[in-house]
Give the backbone structure.
Amino acid sequence: MPALGYGETQPPRLEDDRLPIVLILLDGLGDRAQPELGNRTPLEAASTPVLDELARRGACGLHVPLGPGRAPASEVAHWAIFGYEGVLFPGRAVLEALGFGLPVADSDPRLYAALRASTVRDGAVWITGRSGAADEADARRLLADLPQAAGFELEWVRLGEGILRLTGAGPEAAAVTDSDPFFEDRQPWLRPRAQTGAHPSASAMAQALATYLLAARLELAGHPVNRDRARRGLPALDTLTTKWAGARLPLPAFAERVGASGGLVTSSALYRGFARLLAMDHRDLATNSDPGQDMAARLDAARDLLRGGAAFVHVHTKVVDEAGHSRRPGAKLKVLEALDPALAALLEPPFDRAVVAVTGDHATPSSGGVIHTGDPTPLLVAGGAVRPDAVSEFGEEPCARGSIGTLRAADLLPLLLGHANRARFLGARATASDSIGFPDQVEPLLPSD
């Protein structure tokens, strides 16, 4: 048998030094300069020695998920973060349905539906609130008693919310707009419309959906539960809103798309849905009210995923985003300071033998009249082939001087794969589907074939 490398002028074999990747996703991390914090962001004003040490050990930059000024929802940003930019997004309603354990084995359109309180003003319906935990019994009965309509199936998932399935409509009919105005004081209950350029079936579905929602409101307005709520001084849950329409279509699993197996540490239906849609391993944890303890538990779960063979692990926490939505910059600062000590685990095994990144999926300003913004979010990457730069603090202003520069979500995973020595050698074709990174799983040609 010829020796390995016979006739070769290049090294016949290279060391396999592929590393795992751990992405710590602090939801809503980015912010704006806040006057009450000396015109610093909450992250700039917070004491975060561990994040600062990671910044010193690595390289920094800024993350604008969909480009400058574009304010993404978490699910849209993550679609690109996970490497699926350019692949048709199935819609958040599909992800939520999967995350709540509903079967989604077909391509019927699905929408996320919610019972809301409302008032009529200037001839339009304005949303004034939503059902809460104390309203669960009322909401269950109201949703169960909604009039049956051909082609519409509503399945409860939580509180006064459910998944509305449009049976037999075809995936093209999912291209309809929201009826949920999102901003209660800026837009009224919205008429569903077909999106521009959509298939004609979307126009028919938008009209059928409008008819269904109007009939539901008529039924809800006179329902005994809402009459009883009025007697008890509670607002009627008399309007059904819909949003996040989409349909599940065939798409490559994460391991095929990226070239490496992936895992998620989750705590909500959205990210459980991502795990199930993309065939990724996951560990689901209840959220601990103590941010530091919660993060420590998530990093324990990340260790478990690494031990199980995951080459990419996504660790998500919502607490930073929730603090930003409180409109109190000091609250966001305190959450960041509470998280920081737990992140010291990233300096120790097994994370010190991985490429570790910390960033957010969007900015959530802790003041003002916006929810998410396209403001840059800090990014740090440490470990592997990363060459440390001169940044010594983790924050918006210091990271703007980092060597990574400003990148979009679609470029984040390729960057991390490169530093983990997992970049795909462009030009080589080892798999039928061009993966973003080096493909760990290939199909061998066997002598017995």
